[in-house]
Amino acid sequence: MDFGIKVGTPEKQRGACVVVGIFESRKLTDSAKILDKVTQGYLKNILVLGDMDGKANTALLLHNVPDTLFKRVLLIGLGKEQEFKEKTFLSAVNTALSALQKTAVTDATLFLSDFPIKERTNQWKVSQIIIAAASSNYRFDQLKSKPENSPHSLRKLVMCIDSRTELAVCEEAVQQSLAVAHGMNLAKDLGNLAPNICTPTYLAKQAKDLAKTHKLKASILEEKDMEKLGMGSLLAVARGSEQPAKLIVLEYQGSGKKESPIVLVGKGVTFDTGGISLKPAAEMDEMKFDMSGAGSVLGTLLAIVEMKLPINVVGIIPATENMPSGKATKPGDVVTSMSGQTIEILNTDAEGRLILCDALTYAERYNPKVVIDIATLTGACVIALGNFTTGLISNDDKLAQELLAAGEQAVDRAWQLPLWDEYQDLLKSNFADIANIGGRAAGTITAACFLSRFTKKYRWAHLDIAGTAWKSGKEKGSTGRPVPLLTQFLITQAKTSS
Ligand code: BES
Ligand code: MN
Ligand code: ZN
Fold it and tell me: To the nearest whole number, what is the mean pLDDT of the chain?
């Protein structure tokens, strides 16, 4: 789909459809007023009939409106003007998109001034509209024998602004949000793929392909390489699987300087059965999404290479299955991590931290500016924050604030949990340096405490995306989160470091 920015008002444009907002009750927005004027009160007359009073999430499509150059006018209810905020804006955008998709409209025009939101620029609105459009166009039908017919005819969306001074920043927002959408689509595709297809080997191949088509360097470490490095913890998780584990490393040199990189580490468990600590059968299929951290790292790298962001970024993905077998790691096994610390594996289902800890130690060799790991790590995070909010834990408050701000800006929000020393005691083991579980209480925090033992040498943040990476139920599928948060964070870093 194409997106364009224009400076102008509705009376001078032409096209297949113009979208205009109506506040409750029957209050015209600026562009609606102009259109009403040139059509000699046509819109007001319609509103008087009572078919559209401006309630949020309503739409009314009009044909053959006289005296305009648009073939159709789509009225979108925006709710009460005083209560109009981000959430109503986003749902109005989705209402408009789904109304357009039910028609044969190929191009539509809308006016950003119709949506006055405090503290949100037109640039921000452009980004949100593009990401919403990309999400509503997203289909995953590559595993169906026949593609499902989705007769989407909408090809072009023109967003109009009042003043020429904003043209350049809005056009930049188009480019950047298209890149974010591409990154999200990649993360979604990888997440949605069946786990017999999206194996560690498949992820490694995707990384190599990404490196080939873009300006990236890919290296894949095999199990024998990991053995040499002493990654006993990562290999302990891989032991029960027939699929070989891979450690995928992607390097992007965008800054043109020998600058320390930002390292992104993504959990790549392509299927999590729990191992010998086997998970219950219900919804176990959803554990194919347990590589969503990995998917978000690949998606974010795609987004930033498309943007040619002037920054250095390294992506590290420990990829493995977690399976039970005669060779699998058992509860009580003690392994030695790459850092030298020994780990008592009391629950083989707490495998994410076991693969991340070795990847986090490996990250040290890049002398990183910061390291961010992204992982579907704990069910406890879903209980604490639900499906809207990513869990954030960091050993550096400034970094935490920057990530929170990026999430706020991208509407891909996170919320910080504490990393206080008191929680560390819960990981004591009688037999090794550290246990891999800390009991039921504060499960998200103790998981992060475990990781913090391996991140002492740099500024680090952990994003627990267990609740946000995918949707369950009728809409089951990957969300592509937190690609928007991560990309926004990197955009800001690139601006402030150059
Ligand atoms: N991948 C899961 C976390 C998960 C569970 C994400 C459900 C989303 C939905 C992780 O590997 C896991 O199994 N964690 C355990 C940890 C426990 C054994 C300490 C959990 O959360 O139950
Ligand atoms: Mn698990
Ligand atoms: Zn897992």
Answer: 97
